[in-house]
Write a structure and sequence with these properties.
- The complex is a heterodimer.
- Chain A is α/β, with parallel strands linked by helices.
- Chain A contains twelve helices and 18 strands.
- Helices cover about 30% and strands about 25% of the residues of chain A.
- Chain A is globular and about 70 Å long.
- Chain B is mainly β.
- Chain B contains one helix and six strands, in the order βββαβββ.
- A four-stranded antiparallel beta sheet of chain B has the order 3-4-5-6, with no helix packed on it. In chain B, strands 1-2 form a two-stranded antiparallel sheet.
- The model of chain B has no long low-confidence stretch (mean pLDDT about 90).
- Classes of the chains: A alpha/beta, B mainly beta.
- At the A-B interface, helix 8, strand 15 and helix 11 of A face helix 1 of B.
Chain lengths: ~425, ~80
């Protein structure tokens, strides 16, 4: 306690610290001991959890809140994704959700006074046949009707945006055209977690790292708090924002979820000179890639096919992703890969998230994001905070209630937008 | 590349296998009396355990369905058995 933390970052402050030898910087957030009781406890100190805490304080004036993280802040999927932000989905419910997140991202650096390095360099999804072009046109039409930006590109349009693409006569996946979303892009993932953490801390939220939830406190059938490795913490309301480990916490709370956990891998190459200024996905290979600000080529693809909690990934998918990259960009055959890693994603049958009350009253769910948790952090946090504060769904989160698996009103984006996750 | 044990073919590449479902989740019957909750639970829900798990797998190369016990963290296969899940 008593640590001086909150200060405003500015160009002047940076200049002043430069003159003082950078001796005046303070920690960006406190590391308090947990209190015995909070108005709300958020399990999971990744982007979704920290954003939930931030919007609880900002939108609803609830700042007696703790965020509990079993490891380090942003060390789960928030630190393991490939940082892409987009809203190129098919169904109106999905576009409303992901475009809400994209809009919040667009103002986030200013709002949090923390540079998240949002770079709206566009996402290009390439089609390889006349039939795929029909589906691309359908997706573009749907996106435009649903109110987000989308453009149908022909072959020349695709090549103009990514000249290094394989345009040879013998290409296994020839370029016919593609879907372009210009507002999409990438942001610095750690900065999103840190920016929300700093802003939430400044609003009074306690961020407690290295504290694992070991059970739920249930009184009269109602969730009254959590048992943790640092003792019991009581709360009026509890939310779980733990991505791939949702099934594990659900088991502690005594219910099941329509979630299966899989590894999702990514890898980066050595840094090279600028050669790719957009995000490219091939429908044919399932591989997508972009070049980071440091010059590394960041590559990702589909899920490992074996249900898993191992945060490392297996070789078959690495082979698929790399061979896909070589088909798309033959010149990248000279790249040396530097690192490979994996996160555990929570895959839902309809590839859409779950936001809403759980079967245990007093416990709110924010899970099932699959491979799309990072891009939706601001929206997920905003909507989960509203559920905690008011007990009511926002119009945007209502379709994503757990109830849809009983009513059958699924939002099947794997079929809708052809993006497998 | 991990090798999984097919009861019919022996050890084969993991890419030849598909996860089918958790073992022991029988289809609720008779259909006319199955509630929406029970049907939803059968279709979509699961324990998704971290650690030891018992699952039905398909070896796509020979069409054999079988039960495999393995660990979802270490990926170690402990038991494989043929026949009805």
């Amino acid at each position: 306690m008593g640590t001086c933390v909150t200060r405003r970052y500015s160009a002047f402050g940076l200049f002043r610290e430069g003159l003082r030898g950078h001796t005046g910087w303070q920690p960006a957030w406190r590391s308090p001991q947990p209190k015995t009781r909070y108005d709300a406890v958020i399990i999971g100190g990744g982007g979704q959890g920290l954003a939930t805490a931030y919007y609880l304080a900002k939108n609803h004036g609830i700042n007696n809140v703790a965020v509990i993280e079993k490891g380090w802040l942003g060390g789960g999927n928030t630190g393991r994704n490939t940082t892409t932000i987009r809203s190129n989905y098919f169904y109106p419910e999905s576009v409303a959700l992901y475009d809400f997140a994209l809009k919040l991202y667009e103002g986030l650096s200013r709002e949090l006074n923390y540079n998240i390095m949002l770079s709206q360099r566009g996402v290009l999804t390439v089609s390889h046949s006349d039939a795929e072009m029909e589906m691309a046109a359908r997706l573009v039409n749907a996106m435009q009707i649903n109110g987000t930006d989308a453009e149908l590109l022909d072959r020349d349009g695709v090549i103009a945006r990514a000249p290094l693409l394989n345009r040879g006569e013998t290409a296994r996946y020839p370029i016919f055209g593609g879907v372009w979303q210009g507002r999409a892009g990438v942001a610095r993932h750690d900065a999103v977690a840190w920016g929300y953490a700093r802003a939430a801390d400044a609003a009074g939220v306690d961020i407690i790292q290295n504290c694992e939830v070991t059970g739920f406190l249930v009184e009269n059938g109602h969730c009254a708090g959590v048992e943790t490795t640092l003792g019991t913490i009581r709360a009026d309301s509890v939310a779980m924002c733990v991505a791939g480990h949702s099934g594990q916490l659900a088991a502690l709370a005594g219910f099941e979820l329509p979630i299966r956990s899989y590894s999702l891998q990514a890898m980066v190459s050595e840094p090279v000179k600028p050669c790719l200024d957009t995000v490219v996905l091939y429908l044919g290979t399932g591989t997508y890639l972009f070049q980071s600000d440091k010059g590394e080529i960041v590559v990702g693809g589909g899920l490992d096919r074996v249900p898993s909690y191992a945060q490392r990934g297996n070789p078959p998918m690495q082979q698929t992703v790399i061979s896909g990259m070589l088909e798309m960009f033959p010149a990248f055959g000279q790249l040396k890969m530097l690192r490979q890693w994996a996160g555990i994603v929570d895959v839902v049958p309809d590839s859409s998230p779950i936001i809403g009350p759980s079967p245990l009253p007093g416990l709110i769910l924010n899970c099932g994001w699959g491979t799309g948790g990072f891009k939706s952090i601001p929206a997920g946090g905003w909507l989960t905070a509203k559920l905690i504060a008011t007990g009511e769904h926002d119009d945007i989160s209502c379709p994503f209630d757990l109830d849809r698996f009983r009513t059958g009103r699924l939002i099947d984006e794997a079929a809708g937008s052809g993006i497998a996750h | 590349m991990q090798l999984f044990p097919c009861p019919f073919c022996g050890l084969r590449d993991e890419t030849e296998f598909s996860f089918a479902t958790e073992a022991g989740r029988g289809r609720p019957e008779p259909a006319a009396e199955v509630s929406a909750d029970a049907w939803s639970s059968y279709l979509h829900f699961g324990a998704n355990p971290k650690g030891a798990t018992r699952e039905v797998w398909l070896h796509a190369a020979c069409g054999e369905f079988f039960v495999m016990e393995r660990d979802t963290v270490t990926h170690m296969v402990t038991v494989q058995e043929a026949g009805e899940p």
